[in-house]
Amino acid sequence: MTGHPFRADQGQTILIYVVVVGGLLFLAFAYFAFAQAAVARNGAQSAADAAALAAAQEVRDQMADGLTGALGGDGDWAAWLSGDHAVPGTGDAAAAQLAGANDATLDGLTPTTVRGLPAFEASVTTRFTVGKSVIPGTESRHAQAHAVAMIEPRCTVMPSDDSKLIKFDCDGGQHWNIDPKKLQDIELPRAKDLFAVHLAE
Predict the structure, then answer these.
(1) End-to-end alpha-carbon separation of the chain, Å?
(2) For the chain, where are the E strands, in sequence order?
(3) 0.70 surpassed by pTM
């Protein structure tokens, strides 16, 4: 005696349904795992960007101080203004602090140049992991990223009719006429007036 063909078809249909639903669930969990990984990568990139920018900003402030000292007669102020002077610092402390503030560890900070201008490359690893998922090993995997930030001069030396004055123009229509012997009597340009800090493209 044979079984009813309708029941056999029904059993096959249920099996196919289970397989299809199981496959869809796996795909959903896999997609979620990739989304987790993307979030971790974005977090790592944000931390790397922040670390590189922090290093460049710290050194930019030191460059501005170097320029101020050179205006007073302690060195080549034009080299400071153009970014051609030797970089006075490394920015490690600032980079490590900003990486930590973004839940990451600074793996390395390397001074470099971009288009001949001073720059810093930061490498970081997140302190958090991708998290558990259907993909084995993600619960112990940390995201890594790197970023480069550069320091770009915003000012140009201008000729002056008065040999006693130092004159330069900066982005944004700012003009400076400085008497090196009267630095204490004027408001000197700020670091951000002299140099722009941004991520290298």
Answers:
(1) 77
(2) 104-114, 117-129, 142-153, 155-157, 166-170, 174-178, 195-199
(3) yes
